[in-house]
Amino acid sequence: MTTATVPVAKSKPVRRSRGRLVEILGRVWGDTSGRIAIPMLAVLVLIAVFAPWLVPHDPTHQNLAAASQAPSWLGGEGGYLLGTDTLGRDVFSRLLYGLRLSLVVGVVTATGAALFGLVLGLIAGYFENGVGMLLMRLADIQFAIPFVAVGVALAAVVGPGIVKLMIILAVWGWANYARTIVNSVSQTKRMDFVTAAHTIGARTPAILFRHIAPNVLGPVIILWSTSAGVMILVESALSLLGLGVQPPDFSLGSMLSDSRTTLRLAWWATVFPGLAIMLVVVAFNLLGDAVRDALNPSARTKSDPELW
Amino acid sequence: MIGYAVRRLLLVLVVAWGVTTFLFALAQLSGDPAELMAPPDASAAVLEATRERLGLNEPFLVQYGQALLSAVTFDFGQSFSFGQPAATMVMERLGPSLWLVIPSLVLCVVVSFGIGIVAALKPSRVSGRLLMVGAFITGSVPYFWMALLLVLLLAVNLQWLPATGSDGMASLVIPVLALTLAAVSTTTRLVRGQLLDSFGEGHVLTARSKGVPPWKVLFGHALPGAMPPLLAWLGIEFSFLFSALLVLEPLLGYNGLGALLIRSVGNQDFPLVQASVFCMAMLITLVNIAMDLIVRLIDPRLRAKAAA
């Protein structure tokens, strides 16, 4: 309230909303998980962006003379940091490039699913008895089919491919978001400020996106940050089955698919890509935890009551 | 309660209809099965006869009606590639899959309740925190990679277990361990969180202040209050495990429903795809509904709410 005396009162709303964002980011940064997650993600993104300048070898170059070389620090020849696979490709270089695709898939599909889920969740909560009912039953149906089964079956129809897989992931992912927000949308819809917006003649899309959406963004953002890691895992799993990325492109998941049959010859070609997937997922999960605590302080384990 | 049960069971019908329709649409989109079944040099007459035999020349709506009927009678016709009734094959393969899912679920409950309770008793101590960090990291490990690591360790290096296949108890160890590790993390975190919430509730504090021994407070007062969301979660975990099976079974050469589905998708064997996805969806829905009903039965808070 003291800001009311500040002369530039005109720009107040803008400054307030920016202040809120900064405050949330500050809280994410203040959280232990957040303070680990943000630098981790920053490093991963930088590695992915600058991969072409960081790789010591061409990641797709096959060199059968140097096939299945152990990592150099385990006595392998040729100075390959993480060894080579059975086709003589440098695992470290492939890892850096594979990281690119995995990060893109995670962020893009999670964002797509979040937007799609937000819109459908708003519609389902606002028109709760007609369309909403239908949408929520659709979510129930989707929920009963294991996602991998959907991915596999759809890939059989439309053919395998990373872009198709990303679209399937994003489209199928709406249900989780819609389920999470549908109740608070229908509660918000009954609040006075929405009625007020109606009275002054605001149209339905404006009410949905300008007035109701900001009130349900919190859970959407929380779900987004946790689902990026899940999306990366699903993409890896489906690429492992040969349904995601197609050669010569590759992701961390398809690297596992190439190397799994040659565990005996070159375990490093399986172990390190998996470790990289795990690091990415750890980073996103940590971010998810930090964002949840920042947006929803009451969900934080309050002062941990120690009874015993 | 009975009204609630009936409404939940009606959902089974909705899901059955939705899944059947989804699968029917997929089959329609995926081209002509007659061409896949017949030898490459088959004459037009042979193709036509095959179409006639499979009922592909019937009008669209008749085919849709037949698809619905086949779901009701659980008779999906003969598998294209094996020439046996699809439903029978699915039921035969369901057993081996349940041999993976049920032990994993039981192990997951034992481990995560054990760790979750210990971590909840000492939430601020180093031991409690370390357990949760452990659970967090486990949750970020890709389960398919974990399975490959276990193969590397237990089958390739130590030679204690077969690397792949599905004969005997020994072949269960690796998939069950990988599934359990994948499921344990979230469950542990949930057990701890629910227990901590439960510790703060009036009836627990009252029991504690009246001098009830700590173990009695934990198992007689705090844990029962924490159970309902955990039971509901186990239903969700069940469907997650089935999703993971679809990746793990083909990866480890295990002859279960998951491997069957992935293979029949590859063969475009639609009767088999329909039968196996339908069977999984029904199983997942029924287990989740059973969990919901149990939660209703045991949670007096929900009963009071329903009565009001």
TrEMBL record, chain A:
The chain crosses the membrane at residues 36-55, 103-127, 147-174, 220-245, 265-287. Gene3D superfamilies: MetI-like. It is found in: Cell membrane. It is a multi-pass membrane protein. InterPro entries: BP-dependent_transpt_permease, MetI-like, MetI-like_sf, OppC_N. It comes from the Bacteria. Residues 99-288 form the ABC transmembrane type-1 domain. Its main location: membrane. Keywords: Cell membrane, Membrane, Transmembrane, Transmembrane helix, Transport. Belongs to the binding-protein-dependent transport system permease family. This is ABC transporter permease. It comes from Actinocorallia aurantiaca. The lineage of its organism: Bacteria, Bacillati, Actinomycetota, Actinomycetes, Streptosporangiales.
Automatic annotation (TrEMBL), chain B:
It is found in: Cell membrane. Belongs to the binding-protein-dependent transport system permease family. PROSITE patterns: ABC_TM1. This is ABC transporter permease. CDD domains: TM_PBP2 (cd06261). The chain crosses the membrane at residues 98-121, 133-156, 168-186, 230-252, 272-295. SUPFAM superfamilies: MetI-like. Its main location: membrane.
